[in-house]
Specification:
408 residues; Antithrombin, Chain I, domain 2; Alpha-1-antitrypsin, domain 1; 7-stranded antiparallel beta sheet; 24% helix
Length: 408
């Protein structure tokens, strides 16, 4: 996947800002997950067709001039479509009576241009079928609020799947401290000699341990554990800062003995034969689902003016007066023993208005993720964050098998 650095920074910037705004949802007990890469193209296409204050706000949200946004969105969608294990799609449905500006419609790489039926149930079934088909069944309902005023639905679907280069072993985890103390959790464990996959970053908000779990198709999942006092937004923001090379990461091979970072300890371990230093990882399986009302965060997404239904904001889309009546995203992320699956569907609805004889020792970098932590699914080459989230409540025991791979 080839994507301009400025575009990656723009999308990652929205990821970082959304991470800060998503703290309340992460604190409610079920964690959260979101995809700025799923929202960004929609905002860019809206910016292209907007005017006045709505155009300026959307341009600020996407992090580039409005007249460059549509081309950048097409570049992003095309590039994501070239990555094995990453599928993306754009869909457009309009009322029969809505006439679109041909130049705007022609600029959309929409694989589906359907019609909003007069019967809302027929429309709902069509939209749900598209969401389920485009996400392999991970998301079965289109996140839209359909009203009689709905003139158009502009939607994106993003599905990500990767299998680990080396699977984790499954074992029960019993945290001895923290919010998960006293629980029996489906733990995941593995050892490797790749100390470069773990590191500690010193950020303005505190130290953050970052573990990269590599997939077999160029997509990695970064697990992020901050100091206990840090908020989800600070930890995830640090993760994006690491991607953008804003923070220096001290790699595992350079960490001092003792407590070297959050959830990280470097120590000597006896062994029967000479061995290279080892990275010992213990984490949990998780399955996180979230539903976001983007209009509740209208300033973040540049929709403050665009949601005003008393005025027309998108003359570049249609001569019919349009405003944003609904903007929502549904997301799911599953991390298991053999891989990671995630999907996001976003929809904007414009409306009218884891006793031998010892003779040797080796160094072991031991990383334990046994309290709430963040994660980012990242395209390795470009460092583009595709999905981000916060794990507050891991999978209960007995469900690990379901989270190994999820739907294919």
């Amino acid at each position: 996947m080839h994507v301009a650095g400025a575009l990656v920074r723009a999308v990652n910037g929205l990821t970082a800002r959304w991470a800060g705004a998503a703290e309340a949802g992460a604190a409610e007990g079920g964690g959260t997950v979101f995809s700025a890469a799923g929202v960004w193209p929609l905002l860019a296409f809206l910016a292209d067709g907007a005017t006045g204050a709505a155009r300026a706000e959307l341009a600020e949200a996407v992090g580039m001039p409005a007249d460059q946004a549509a081309a950048a969105a097409r570049e992003l969608l095309t590039a994501m479509g070239t990555v094995r294990g990453l599928d993306s799609a754009l869909g457009l449905w309009t009322k029969r009576t809505l006439e679109l500006r041909e130049e705007w419609r022609a600029g959309l790489p929409a694989e589906a241009h359907g019609v909003l039926d007069d019967d809302p149930e027929v429309t709902r079934q069509a939209l749900d079928a598209w969401a389920a088909r485009r996400t392999g069944g991970l998301i079965r309902r289109m996140p839209v609020a359909l009203t009689p005023d709905a003139q158009m639905v502009l939607a994106s679907a993003l599905t990500l799947r990767t299998d680990w280069l080396r699977p984790f072993d499954e074992r029960m985890l019993h945290p001895g401290a923290g919010p998960w103390q006293g629980r029996t959790l489906p733990g995941l464990h593995r050892r490797s000699v790749r100390l470069d996959r773990i590191g500690v970053a010193d950020t303005p908000s505190g130290f953050v341990t970052r573990l990269a779990v590599p997939g077999d198709n160029g997509i990695d999942v970064h697990l992020l554990l901050g100091e206990e006092r840090m908020t989800p937004g600070q930890v995830l923001g640090a993760g994006v800062g690491i991607l953008d090379r804003g923070y220096r990461v001290v790699p595992g091979a350079q960490l001092p003995y003792g407590d070297a970072g959050p959830g990280l300890r470097v120590e000597q371990e006896p062994c029967t034969t000479p061995q290279s230093p080892l990275l010992d990882v213990t984490t949990v399986a998780y399955d996180v689902t979230a539903h976001h009302d983007l209009l509740a965060l209208h300033r973040l997404f540049g929709l403050s003016t665009a949601k005003d239904t008393t005025r027309a904001h998108f003359p570049g889309i249609s001569g019919f007066p349009l405003a944003v009546g609904s903007a929502r995203q549904s997301v799911v992320a599953r991390f298991g023993a053999v891989g990671f699956r995630a999907a996001a569907v976003t929809a904007v609805v414009p409306v009218a208005g884891s006793v031998p004889q010892y003779r040797h020792t080796t160094t072991v970098v031991r990383a334990t993720f046994d309290r709430p932590f963040g994660f980012l699914a990242v395209h390795r080459e470009t460092r583009l964050a595709l999905v981000g989230g916060w794990v507050t409540d891991p999978e209960p025991c007995g469900t690990t098998a379901r989270t190994r791979t999820g739907p294919q």
